[in-house]
Structure formats: C-alpha cells, structure tokens
C-alpha cells in the first residue's frame, strides 16, 4: 500500500512540474508578445534613415542600400546626394544623421556634435582614386601632382586649365589639401556643373585637364558619346611611403598597392544619438556582403571579404 501511495505521489508531482513548465512557457510567450507590442516602432532594422552622401559615389551606395533593403524590407534609407562640403552641411544641420564622405569631419565641424554629447561611430568602407583626364589630341599622356597644385595656385603650366564639376567637391578639396592651399586662385581652374560637363569640356578642348572621382568616371565613360577623345593621364607617384617617382594609372591593383598617389579613403560617419538604423546599415556596408559589392565595383574594400574553398576527396 505504501508503495502504491509513493507511486501516486511521484506521478502527481511529475504532472505538477510538467504543468508548471507548460505554464512558464505560456507566460514567457505571452510576455514576449507583450514586449513586442509595447516595443517602439523605431529600431535598428525597422526604421527610416537619412544619409548625406558624396554625390560622386551615389550609384555604388544605392546598390548597397538595395541589397540591404532586400534583407530588411521594413527599413527605408533616403539619400541626400551633394558635393562633399554641402553634404557635410546636411549632416550638421540635422537633415541627415549619417554621412558617407571621403574624409572625417574636422574639429570645427565636430564641435556641434560634441556640444550635444554625440560621439560618432566612424568606419572606413573603401579606397578609390581621383582620375585625371586629358584630350587625346593633346601631347600630354601623364601629369605630376606638383603641376596640378601649381595650377590651383594660379601658376601657368603649359597653358592648361583644370576642370572640376563643382568647387565644393571632394576631388577639389583633396587637391587643395595636397597643396596646402588656403585660397585657390581662379586663373586656371573652372567649375562646369556636372561630371558629364567635365567629360564634354575635356573632349572638346586639348588644353583642358579634367578631375573626376574614379567611381564617377567608370560609371559615366562607357555611355559617353565622345569617349574616344578622352584618355586617362598617368600620375607620378611622389607621395607617402610607396613613392617611387614612377607613373601609374588608377586601377584596383595600383590603389590597393599604394602606387597610385591620388587615392582617398571613404568613411561612413554615424552621428545618430541612439542605436538606430544607422548602426545596422554601417554594419552591412562594412561587413562581408557589403565589402563584396565594393570589390565587384572595381575599387578597394576596407576589409577584403573572405573566400571559402571547398576541397573534395572525390570528384
């Protein structure tokens, strides 16, 4: 009898424990549902984001966003494409909380965010170059940085003029920084409005030298009607630890090796005060999938994506 009573107690306890576990699971599921219902609509993957972007790299970053959106369809990214200086102003004014630029903010620009105790999350995403183009009827097939800087200083170099799309562009600022020029002279420079206008101007004038971003040039040249009148000029490598005084054309390999001197790093600068969609998009662009898109575009990713090699014992 005692044995039967003991068995009965064990069975009762077992059923009670199972009932408690079942109840706990239901309570847990109910709690999760309640938390989900009370969670704010904005989040790292369910949100909208405004990004100020250097207009010269817009097609590539749009491709990144399309792939990101296919994985996270509830996200929405709006791009404000402007020349570099104007893109920075969009960031500081609060019209955008993330920017993709060929530089980080300077001390004066950063002071606005420091006053609001916002610490940026800044990550390099790729390296590209600045392309110097000339007319095929010109005898020049190469150029050195000293000549370009002198033209910006107002010094006559072979009666040439340097053509930019916009004097607020990253390409213009990059050459200005290289020459440490506080005020650029207007004698031998022109701003013509758009990148296509730069191509047209150089194609029609042997005394013009055009300056464009590497990605920008690659995107436009194939469909440009007068492309046979344009050629890329090689640039003498006189900068940095890889300087060898040789002339190089811009390419994925010469940029990666540090041989092409007119190269720059692009960054994604996240000034969101909280962990919103900006951190998710930054993670995607700097992650394996985003870096593969960069690699396929013909420029140099900040992190070389891994390659998986499958070895089979039998075929």
Count of the domains: 2
Radius of gyration: 28 Å
Determine the fraction of residues in helical runs and give it as a percent range: 40-55%
Structural class of the secondary elements?
A: alpha/beta
Mean pLDDT: 85
The residue ranges in which pLDDT falls below 50 over 5 or more consecutive positions are 1-43
Describe this structure in words.
By secondary structure, the chain is an alpha/beta fold. The chain is globular, with a radius of gyration of 28 Å. The model is unreliable at about 1-45 (pLDDT under 50). It has two domains: about 50-125 and about 265-300, D-Maltodextrin-Binding Protein, domain 2 (3-Layer(aba) Sandwich); about 130-265, D-Maltodextrin-Binding Protein, domain 2 (3-Layer(aba) Sandwich), CATH 3.40.190.10. It has helices spanning about 1-40, 60-70, 85-95, 105-115, 145-155, 170-180, 195-205, 215-220, 250-255, 275-285, 290-295, and strands spanning about 50-55, 75-80, 100, 120-135, 140-145, 160-165, 190, 210-215, 230, 235, 245-250, 265-270, 300. The chain starts with a helix and ends in a 14-residue tail after the last strand. Strand 6, helix 6 and strand 7 (about 190) form a beta-alpha-beta unit. The strands form two sheets. Strands 1, 2, 3, 4, 6, 7, 8, 9, 12 and 13 form a ten-stranded mixed sheet that branches. It contains eleven helices and 13 strands.
């Amino acid at each position: 009898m005692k044995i039967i009573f003991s068995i009965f107690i064990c069975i009762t306890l077992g059923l009670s424990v199972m009932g408690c576990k079942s109840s706990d699971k239901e309570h847990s599921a109910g709690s999760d549902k309640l938390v989900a219902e009370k969670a704010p609509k904005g989040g790292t993957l369910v949100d909208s984001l405004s990004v100020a972007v250097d207009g010269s790299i817009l097609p590539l970053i749009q491709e990144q966003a399309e792939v990101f959106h296919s994985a996270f369809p509830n996200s929405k990214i709006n791009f404000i494409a402007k020349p570099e200086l104007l893109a920075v102003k969009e960031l500081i004014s609060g019209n955008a909380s993330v920017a993709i630029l060929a530089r980080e903010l300077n001390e004066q620009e950063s002071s606005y965010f420091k006053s609001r105790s916002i610490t940026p999350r800044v990550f390099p995403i790729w390296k590209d170059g600045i392309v110097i183009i000339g007319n095929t009827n010109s005898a020049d097939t190469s150029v050195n940085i000293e000549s370009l800087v002198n033209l910006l200083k107002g010094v006559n170099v072979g009666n040439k003029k340097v053509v930019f799309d916009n004097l607020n562009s990253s390409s213009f600022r990059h050459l200005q920084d290289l020459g440490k020029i506080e005020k650029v002279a207007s004698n031998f420079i022109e701003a013509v409005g758009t990148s296509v206008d730069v191509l047209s101007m150089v194609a029609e004038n042997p005394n013009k030298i055009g300056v464009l971003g590497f990605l920008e040039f690659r995107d436009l040249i194939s469909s440009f009607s007068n492309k046979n009148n344009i050629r890329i000029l090689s640039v003498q490598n006189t900068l940095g630890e890889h300087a060898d005084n040789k002339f190089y054309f811009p390419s994925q390999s010469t940029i990666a090796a540090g041989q092409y001197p007119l190269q720059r790093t692009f960054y994604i600068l996240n000034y969101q005060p909280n962990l919103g969609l900006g951190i998710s998009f930054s993670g995607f662009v700097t992650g394996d999938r985003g870096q593969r898109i960069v690699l396929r575009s013909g420029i140099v990713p900040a992190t070389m994506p891994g390659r998986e090699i499958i070895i089979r014992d039998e075929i």
